[in-house]
Amino acid sequence: MIRIGQGFDVHPFAKGRQLHIGGVHVPYETGLLGHSDADVLLHAIIDALLGAAGLTDIGHLFPDTDELYQGADSVGLLAKVIEKIAQESFTISNIDCTILAEKPKMQPYLPAMKLVIANTCHIQPEQINIKATTMEQMGFIGRGEGIGALAVALLEK
Ligand SMILES: Nc1ccn([C@@H]2O[C@H](COP(=O)(O)O)[C@@H](O)[C@H]2O)c(=O)n1
Ligand SMILES: C[C@@]1(CO)OP(=O)(O)OP(=O)(O)OC[C@H]1O
Predict the structure, then answer these.
(1) Is position 90 annotated in a ligand binding site?
(2) Could you tell me which residue ranges the 2-C-methyl-D-erythritol 2,4-cyclodiphosphate synthase domain spans (predicted)?
């Protein structure tokens, strides 16, 4: 059986926060606001994996009303989702994703993100592709108000 899932997430910038994208600290003047570490890329990947496995979504599994997830490292959340999909006998074929950000430039950090995600998902880096694009200064992301991310995942069992 082959199943596809898609995920989307967005978080606004907030002063005094560190920017975590794809499990990597990206040096920037501001970070993203969220109940967890607000790692928008990992959240989109989590939702793509859960969608493909038919296992609801990130907010069902890790409610933002639960103190347990306050400031949570999203790499840990992804690891829990990987356990869940393995319990359902799914393996990951590939993950493709796109970061929507006017700034900062993500390209230098994409290889490190790929390694973190591959290690956490127990797959090869070649099974993951990460892209970044600006919004050409249009809309809330284009005005630099936040960052978005899209992901698709293909699972097999
Ligand atoms: N935050 C970003 C946005 C883009 N990139 C890289 O720049 C290329 C051109 O982006 P456009 O939005 O102008 O098409 C894009 O393909 C990425 O390689 C980036 O690293 N970080
Ligand atoms: C991850 C969770 C839980 O800490 O909080 P946020 O960091 O706010 O992220 P969101 O993308 O809104 O996803 C669901 C949440 O329940």
Answers:
(1) no
(2) 2-155
Q: Which spans in 4-88 are helix H?
A: 40-53, 58-61, 74-87
User: What CATH number should be reported for the domain whose range is 2-156?
Assistant: 3.30.1330.50
Place 49 in a pLDDT band, splitting at 50, 70 and 90. Answer: very high
Question: Which value does ipTM take for this structure?
Answer: 0.89
Q: Exposure pattern of 6-15 as b/e (b: 16+ CB <10 Å)? A: ebebbbebee
Q: Which atom belonging to ligand 1 lies closest to the Cα atom of 100?
A: 1
Two structure tokens written together for 150: 């899209």
Ligand 1: residue whose CA is nearest its atom 3: 133
Residue ranges around ligand 2 (CB below 6 Å): 9, 34-36, 38, 43, 58-59, 62-64, 69, 72
Q: What is the mean pLDDT of residues 124-133?
A: 98
Known binding residue 147? Answer is no
Q: Which atom of ligand 2 is nearest to the CA of 9?
A: 11
* 132 pocket-lining for ligand 1 (C-beta < 6 Å): yes
- pTM greater than 0.80 (yes/no): yes
Helix (H) or strand (E) holding 153: strand 146-156
> Which of 46, 75, 73 shows the shortest CA–CA distance to 61?
46
